[in-house]
UniProtKB/TrEMBL annotation:
Residues involved in phosphate binding: S64, T65, A66, S94, D112, S201, G202, T203
Keyword Chaperone annotated: no
The organism of origin for this protein: Streptacidiphilus fuscans
Any one GO molecular-function label of the UniProt entry: phosphate ion binding
PANTHER family: PHOSPHATE-BINDING PROTEIN PSTS
Protein name, as recorded: Phosphate-binding protein
Upper lineage: Bacteria, Bacillati, Actinomycetota, Actinomycetes, Kitasatosporales
Length: 378
C-alpha cells in the first residue's frame, strides 16, 4: 500500500521548537498518546501521566546512531514526566544493536534497516518462545552528502557520480563528471578522500541501497550494513564521519542531516533527473518517504523506500529508523514502561520534538499502524 504524506511536515520545525525545550506528556502510557507541548511543567489544565501510565524501572536499548540525537530529546522529555522510568539507550550502531537485542540484553533495538527474516526467525528465544521480532518505524530523515572543499559551495552530485566517487573510479574534485554537473564552479584538482562507516550501520545500508537502485550500472556492490565497496577510509558512527569531514580537506561522506547541522557541514544537492537538483531537507525527504510501501508481514511494519524516485522536489537518500521489539513475550516488569516510551516517541509531540534536530515526522499512514502495534505488545 502506498503511504500518503499527511501535509504537516512543512510546519514541523516551527511548531516543534517549543516542544524540544519543554514538553508535558499527557497520559504518556496510553495507546493514543498525544503529548501536550504547552510549557515546561504540568499546568492545571493538563492531565499528567500517573506512575501507572508511565510504568517503572529501567528500559535498555541500543543500536542506531542515526536516531541517537532524537533519542536524547525523547528520553529527556519523557523522563521529565515519568521520573520513575529510566531509559538507557546506547548508540552502538544498527548491527550491534540488533545483535545485542537478539542476545536478550536489551528491551529494544534501534536500527536504520529492518531486521531480516532470518533474524526474525531467531528471535523466538528472546520473545518468551511465543513471540517474534517486529520492526516499528519510528522516525525518518535524510542522509546528507557532506563535503569539505573550501571555496566550493552549492555542489551538485548525482547517483552515478557518487557511485564512482565511493567506488574509487573518480579520484579528484575536478573530474569531468563533477564538472559537468557544476559548470560554473571552480573545482580544484584536490584528491577526493571518501569516508565510510567502520561499524555495521543502517546508514551505510540505506546509502548503498540508494546507489544500487539509482545507479545500477555504476554500483556493483549491492546494499549492506557493512560498507560493501573497497577503498576509502573508515570512522566509527555518524559522529565519527562528521568529525572527519570537518577536519579533512577534500573529504566527502554520508551521515544524517542532524549530524550535518550539528557540525555546520557543507552539503551537496542531488540531481535525480527530475529537473532542479534537490537540496537536503526534511521536507524534501518527506516527499520520498511518503512513497514507501509496507512489506513486512505478520505484524511487522518493515518499509521499502523508493530510492530511485524522480518525484520533483523529493530528496532520494533517506532512511527510516526502527525500534525492534517482541510482539509477544516481552519482560513483564518493563513492558509498561517500554510501551509508554514508545507511545510517546510515535505521538505527534514526540515526532515533532525531534524535528529541529533534522528529523521528519512520519506520515500518519505509518504512525497510526505503529500506535496500533504498540497497543498489542504483550
Amino acid at each position: 500500500m502506498k503511504l500518503q504524506r499527511n501535509g504537516r511536515t512543512k510546519a514541523l520545525a516551527i511548531g516543534a521548537l517549543a516542544v524540544v525545550s519543554s514538553l508535558t506528556l499527557a497520559a504518556c502510557g496510553s495507546d493514543n498518546n498525544n503529548a501536550s507541548s504547552t510549557g515546561g511543567s504540568s499546568s492545571s489544565s493538563t492531565t499528567t501521566a500517573s506512575a501507572a501510565d508511565c510504568g517503572s524501572g529501567q528500559v535498555l536499548g541500543a543500536g542506531s546512531t542515526a536516531q541517537q540525537n532524537a533519542m536524547q530529546i525523547w528520553i529527556r522529555n519523557f523522563q521529565q514526566q515519568c521520573s520513575g522510568v529510566t531509559i538507557n539507550y546506547q548508540g552502538t550502531g544498527s548491527t550491534a544493536g540488533r545483535t545485542t537485542w537478539l542476545e536478550g540484553k536489551t528491551q529494544f533495538a534501534g536500527s536504520d534497516s529492518a531486521m531480516k527474516a532470518a533474524d526474525i526467525a531467531k528471535s523466538s528465544s528472546v520473545c518468551g518462545g511465543t513471540g517474534h521480532a517486529i520492526n516499528l518505524p519510528m522516525v525518518g530523515g535524510p542522509i546528507a552528502i557532506a563535503y569539505n572543499l573550501p571555496g566550493v559551495s552549492n555542489l551538485v552530485l548525482d547517483a552515478p557520480t557518487l557511485a564512482k566517487i565511493f567506488s574509487g573510479k573518480i579520484t579528484t574534485w575536478n573530474d569531468p563528471a563533477i564538472k559537468a554537473l557544476n559548470p560554473s564552479a571552480s573545482l580544484p584538482s584536490t584528491p577526493i578522500q571518501t569516508f565510510h562507516r567502520s561499524d555495521g550501520s543502517g546508514t551505510s545500508a540505506n546509502f548503498s541501497a540508494y546507489l544500487a537502485a539509482a545507479a545500477p550500472s555504476d554500483w556493483s556492490y549491492g546494499s549492506n550494513s557493512q560498507w560493501p565497496a573497497p577503498g576509502g577510509q573508515a570512522a566509527q558512527g555518524s559522529s565519527g564521519l562528521a568529525a572527519q569531514v570537518k577536519q579533512v580537506t577534500g573529504s566527502i561522506s554520508y551521515f544524517e542531516l542532524s549530524y550535518a547541522k550539528a557540525n555546520n557541514a557543507t552539503t551537496a544537492s542531488i540531481s535525480t533527473g527530475s529537473g532542479t537538483p534537490v537540496a537536503v531537507s526534511t521536507d524534501a525527504a518527506a516527499k520520498a518517504i511518503s512513497e514507501a510501501t509496507v512489506v513486512g508481514t505478520n505484524g511487522d511494519l518493515a518499509l521499502k523506500l523508493n530510492y530511485a524516485t524522480k518525484t520533483a522536489g523529493a530528496y532520494p537518500i533517506s532512511l527510516v529508523t526502527y525500534e525492534i521489539v517482541c510482539n509477544k513475550g516481552n519482560a513483564a516488569a518493563t513492558l509498561p514502561a517500554l510501551k509508554s516510551f514508545l507511545n510517546y516517541t510515535i505521538s505527534d509531540a514526540g515526532q515533532q520534538a525531534a524535528a529541529p534536530a533534522g528529523y521528519l515526522q512520519l506520515p500518519s499512514a505509518i504512525t497510526d499502524k505503529v500506535k496500533a502495534a504498540i497497543s498489542t505488545l504483550s
